[in-house]
Input
Amino acid sequence: MLHYITIISSQDVIPSMKPLFIKNMTLPEAEVLFASLNEKPYRAQQLFNWLYERNIDSFMEMTNFSKDLRRTLAEQYVLSPLSLEERQVSRDGTEKFLFRTCDDNFIESVLLKNDGTEDGRLTICISSQIGCAMGCSFCETAKIGFRRNLETAEIIDQVCHVRRLSGLKNNNIVFMGMGEPFMNYDNVLKAADIMNYSFGFHISTRKITISTCGVLPGIERFIDEKRPYNLALSLNDTLPEKRQKVMPVEKKYPISNISELLERKFPVSRNRVTLEYVMRGDNISKEDAMRLKKMFRYSRIKLNLIKLNEGKHSLDIPSPEKVDDFIRELMIMNIPISIRKSLGSDISAACGQLSGKRYDEKLTIVINKDCADAETIIEEHVQQCGT
Ligand code: SAH
Output
């Protein structure tokens, strides 16, 4: 029998039943749990070893725990909040996983095995929200609107499943799947911390990248809290008016304020901030390159170029010749660039193509009360797209 906690707030008209996920727990929280069960604190590390290093899928496999303890945990907690719905393999080896949550929502994760890097990088691209409220016009996730934030356990369980299903241990994590990580700051950072535990996945802080469309309060908090993970910022345009047309977040948090914040606060000792730049037909002129050059007065950044992937948007995908010209221009200007290979596009697993298949149908957008900042943006999005 599972125990449930009932969450009742003034905004909840109908009380919701919420299962307890064991993977929501940090080490100190697990230590408190074991103390309450009259167990020694070292049990917490053992638990994390079972959950992540050994990646078990049943409490009964925890053989150094007594049968009673295993039974108690199984009665009180859900081990795996996600179940696999569909797995697709791309021609280039990229794999896409569609997961169902306990409340019958769908999210996607991508395993990138062949990104051409010399360090043998094996990357899992994970989702942080069900849908997204940010309304970027080139992104498929935006088309489904926003449903809710993922819990920490739902974020981590994507990695557990992908590792178990593929038999591969990734050494790299990117928060570049569905959703805006900084609109779900607490759960995302907690998941990153747990994935970094040495007695768990033990993924290095420098191999965990959080990508944001530019949620300024999240970026500021990330810097103030001295979070050790890589930061990526989706720039995608150099002119505010043009950026605003494709990324409504520019209206609320202009990129100029973010650059000012980074110049003022981002520590010199840190890995550089990656500026992601999706190349469209109308943002790769010589003038764009020159404006980027100006931005690079501030040296703590590097540029990651991504060719616009196909989707339900009406934006121009640039020709290979135009892309080459732009890259040459940036190289002449000595701007530090890397070019992201578009992987998995034949199974809609490339950047901006994740939608959670079950969302192909038109859905009602539900605004989560934890995501107040997104409300104005989503409203603008609804007006623009007539969703
Ligand atoms: N919300 C976060 C993370 C998800 S998007 C963010 O905006 O950064 C991850 C990356 O995919 C972003 O850099 C985004 O600009 C890029 N992207 C979105 N749609 C794309 C598309 N159609 N083609 C190429 N890249 C895209």
